[in-house]
Amino acid sequence: MHPVAHTVVVGIISYLVLIVVIRLSGKRTLSKWNAFDFVVTIALGSTLSTALVSTQVSLAQSLTAFAIIVLLQFAITFSSVRSPRVKNLVKSQPTLLLYAGEYRHSAMRQERVVEAEVMAAIRENGIADVERVYAVVLETDGTFSVIPEAGRSDSALDGVAGMPSSQG
Questions:
Q1: Rg of the chain, C-alpha, whole Å
Q2: Taking the model in full, what pTM does it have?
Q3: Cα 153 to Cα 136: distance, rounded to the nearest angstrom
Q4: Which contacts of 64-73 are long-range, i.e. CB under 8 A and separated by 24 or more positions?
Q5: Which of 40, 81, 137, 153 lies 20 to 30 Å (CA to CA) from residue 73?
Q6: pLDDT tens-digit map of 9-52
Q7: Do 85 and 104 fall into the same domain?
């Protein structure tokens, strides 16, 4: 088969199969990215690229590679839901960056976040006064969660690194 024809045929089939495989793998594959999701996405893209331009890699090999990557992603996410050890290997822990109106500078340095980024997240939530913010959390996907006021408990902050263990 001519290399251009190979690229067209393999490209169309690989693209369609990749869409089907990702849809079958569930919403988790398409969720906001953490480091693990980024690696899976890069691996899928690299595999698709190789399938498109390499006449030395068969369509069956490419489709098998897609299936292996998605199956591994499924197995790891399945295991991470059931095993804290696997979860800790795959996913980072959310980190408290601001608490009760005060910045947690050591956590910010560790996460490489500056005050300007935290303030931008606060503004995005329509809050003008940092002291009125109860907490800002850097989530595992790199987004900021802003909690404008304290509730009766801090249950939404369970599992957040840097959260004080006792209050009162």
A1: 22
A2: 0.62
A3: 16
A4: 66/14, 66/17, 66/18, 66/21, 67/21, 69/40, 69/43, 69/44, 70/21, 70/22, 70/24, 70/25, 70/29, 70/44, 72/40, 73/25, 73/28, 73/29, 73/36, 73/40
A5: 137
A6: 888 887 787 777 666 665 555 555 666 777 788 888 888 888 88
A7: no
